[in-house]
Design a protein that fits this description.
150 residues; alpha/beta; five-stranded mixed β-sheet; 5 strands; 47% helix; globular
């Protein structure tokens, strides 16, 4: 696949993750959304559910990992790509590492809680990371949410 084709796919699937982030926003959750793609098919969609479930582990990535693993019938997500609107935290990066996911694509960096600052080696050694896909849109959604909270 050419770099241009990959970029088009990344934009398409990140737009689907942004749809999930907007669902979280509408539910007054921190607006982070994710999708997991396997074989050019979305196999999991999730948004933050920490408020609804009263569970600090109910991040969009964690929900998507569980959903995808259940669908695939196993704990490993080899051959899959996670698209998430904000850089995964350490907890999510650790779970993604254990899942052996092939690729992680995220939109906006998280300078305060992102894995790159605290655990840059949390992913599986073969996991490829692409950052900054639709970064402006992802960042703006977060900024608008927190601005409205203040």
């Amino acid at each position: 696949m050419s770099a241009e084709e990959q970029q088009k796919k990344d934009l398409f699937y990140m737009s689907k993750a942004l749809e999930q982030a907007r669902i979280a926003l509408d539910a007054d959750e921190i607006p982070i959304g994710s999708v997991i793609v396997c074989g050019d098919r979305i196999i999991a969609r999730a948004s933050n559910l920490t408020e609804a479930l009263h569970d600090v582990t109910a991040h969009a990535e964690m929900q998507a990992i569980t959903s995808a693993a259940n669908l695939l019938g196993g704990k490993y997500l080899k051959g899959c790509t996670l698209y998430v609107t904000v850089e995964p935290c350490v907890m999510c990066a650790g779970a993604l590492g254990w899942s052996q996911i092939d690729r992680v694509v995220y939109g906006a960096p998280d300078a305060k809680r992102g894995y790159a600052l605290y655990a840059p080696h949390a992913f599986h050694p073969k996991t490829r990371v692409t950052a900054g896909v639709m970064e402006d849109e992802c960042r703006q959604l977060m900024q608008d949410f927190f601005k409205a909270k203040r």
